[in-house]
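Example 3.2
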Amino acid sequence: MSAASIKKSNSPLFIIGNPRSGTSLLRLILTSHSCILIPPECGFIIWLHEKYANWQITDNNDTIRVELFLNDLLACKKFDTWLLDRAFIEAQIHDNQPATYAELCCVVYSSFGLVAGKTLGIWGDKNNFHLNHLNELLNLYKNARFLHLVRDGRDVACSYREVMTAQSNSPYAPILETRIADIALEWSSNVMKIESFLSTMPSEAAMTIRYEDLVLTPSSIVMSICKWLSLPFETDMLNFHQQNKIKKLEPDLTIDWKKRTLQPISDATVKRYAGLLSNEEQDEFLAVATGALRRFSYV
C-alpha cells in the first residue's frame, strides 16, 4: 500500500493491554509480517488530536499550520525513536493532501512505512496508554480493529517489580507500581475496562488472546490472528527476534526493559509468580483481582 492510499485507510489495528503483558512481543511478531506495519509506540494520535481535530485539506498548503503540526509531532514523547526526517514527513503531507486529522495521522504512519521499505496492507499501533482512549480512537477510525493481549496479573506483578529493579538510563524508562495490592487493582481495572469496550464491538473488529496461549502455542495463535486480519501466515513472524537484532525493530531507548524481544518466544515466565510471590502476596492479589483472574480462566 502506497502513502497515497494508506492515508485513506480507516481500519488500523490497535494492540492494547495492561503494561508488561507482552504487547511489545506481539507488536514485533505482527510487524514482522510483510504486509503489516506497527511502529514503536508513541501516543501522538491522542496527544495532538484536540489541537488538530479540525484539520482540512486547505491546511496542507498552509505553511504555518504544517510547521506547527510538525513542531508538535516531533516534540511528542518517544517520537524520536521513529527516526523520521522532518522534511520527509512534510513532503508526504504535501504529496498526499490529507483531508482530516485521521488521514493526517495515517500519513505519518505511512512515512515510517516508506522508510522501512514495506509493502503495506495494514498499519497499526501498540500503546498501553491507549487503553484509556479507546472510544476516542474508535471515533477517529470507525472501522478500527482492536487486539487485546491479556496476561495473568500475578505474572504481571512479577514483571512490574523486575522492571523497577533493573538499571536503565533511558528517559523513557517506565515507572510502575511495586505494591501487590496496587498492581492487582491497576491490572484488574485495566483488563476489565478493555473487555467492557470490546464487548460492544462486532467480533470481526475485536479479538482477545492470552499471553500464555501465545507463548505456549505461538504458531496456532499467530495463525488465528492472521486469519482474523484476512492475511496469510508468514513464518518470519515467529523469527521476529532475528529481525529485531538486525533492524532494531525495538528502539535502543526502550530495549533495556524489553530484552526478551531479542530472543525466541519462550514460556519461561508463565506462572513464575508461584516462585516469586509469597503465599501472602498471592492471597493479597486474589483478594483484589479474583473476578478479573476468573474472567480469563486464570483461577
